[in-house]
Structure formats: structure tokens, C-alpha cells
């Protein structure tokens, strides 16, 4: 099969996917159902935030997880009513299944009851975090 | 409860794996166009080195260190070696499937497997796509079922 057609097809498909992928990383997606799953402070290992809790799931084979963690840990310093929890996905597979987490990093945004309002996959930008935190009532 | 188990991890220059992914893209493109199992075998050996010893020990990393790195002006950014090492093992799996396909005369298997590895390498090189981020958790979920 000496043809450049398969090559062009792969590169075109991968480019379309790559552009879409990059565009959607970090984007805050609101839960479609009114009430997302509810998490307790026992499950996330810290007390819930007064208004918002950000719960980041990470894995060892994930470079952007570290960048996300650095950003969120830093941002939470200036937001007194927001808490931040970091969870190793691999050692919490039960929770990962329950919450249907498919990739890392995934950051959940919980309201004061611990109910998930929405989530972001990939490393969010600072502005995307602010949008997400503001979207939590 | 929290935090990724803090195994002492090795840090490498993050630009190295990205450069290696670009070379890998070219080599796999050549394998796809020519249908040559030898090119795929060469890449499989490179992947095997990257997956076992680490991506900083492949011939591509050597080219990066000796020719590219001295010319780069961008600041050094390091990353954990495990994500690119994991990606190398996925690449190895695909190229081994491709070689097995060629060896058993099923050129369709060869084409599809090389195409998959090529797509991943290209995404890594062009978009900084992190294969481990997308695949590892799914594998862990399947494995524990």
C-alpha cells in the first residue's frame, strides 16, 4: 500500500481532533442535571469550602496535573470561601467510577453542600477557574 | 486521602519528549507511506528503549541533546519522566501490533496500528497532547474491574 492517502487522512483527522481538544481543555462544563453527585468531606479528605470546593483528580502519568495543582493551590490562597482538594485518581477508583471521571486532570466544582455543579477537564486558565467559581451558587 | 503517592521521581527537560515526538511522527509517516515493516521495527526498538530505560535515553533524545538543546533560547521546563515514558509504552504496543500484522500478512492491521501510533505522536508533537492523561485512568479502571 504505497500511497500518501492514509497519511494525509491521519494527519487531517488528528489536526481536527487536536484543535478541538486544545480548545475544550479547562472549559467549565455545567452539570446537565440539576443536582450532580454529592460528595462529603470524608470522601475528599478535607472540610468543604464555605461556598465552593474544587476537587482535582490527578494521576502519575499526567504532566498537566502538576500545572493544574500549582495554579489551583495558588488561587485558593486568595479565595477565603473556596477550598481545594487534590485526589490521586488511581487510589480512589471507586470514587472515580461513581463520578465517571475519564481523564486527568479533572476538576470538580462543588457547592457548599458538596453537590457537583460542573467540572473542567485539562488544565484550566486562571480566567476559567474564576468563571467556574463564580458559576457556583 | 489526598496527593499522588510521592515516589521520588526523575525530572527531565520537557522539550525533549516533544522533539522526539516530532521525529517519531516523521518515522511513522515513512512507515505508513512505504508500508515497510523495517521502519516500524526500528521505531518499535526506539519505543522499547523509551518505555523501559526512559525517553531521555532514546536516539532521538540524543539528537535533541546534542543538536537542538544547545540552540534553544526558551527557558528550561522540566517534567516528571513518567508521563512520556508511559506514552512510549503505548507507542510500543501499537508498533508491536503493526509488526505482528505485517508478519502474519494482514497489511490492514499494520496500516491501522501504525496510523494510531502516528496520530498519537503527531498530537503530542503538534498539540502537546498528553496520552497518559487520557488513557491511563481508563486502563486502571478496566484493569480493576
UniProtKB/TrEMBL annotation, chain A:
CDD domains: TRX_family (cd02947)
One of the GO biological process terms: cell redox homeostasis
Residue stretches making up the Thioredoxin domain: 8-137
Protein name as it appears in the record: Unannotated protein
Organism (species): freshwater metagenome
TrEMBL record, chain B:
Chain ranges of the DUF4395 domain: 12-141
Bilayer-spanning residue ranges: 21-39, 85-103, 109-139
Keywords: Membrane, Transmembrane, Transmembrane helix
The protein's name: Unannotated protein
Source organism (scientific name): freshwater metagenome
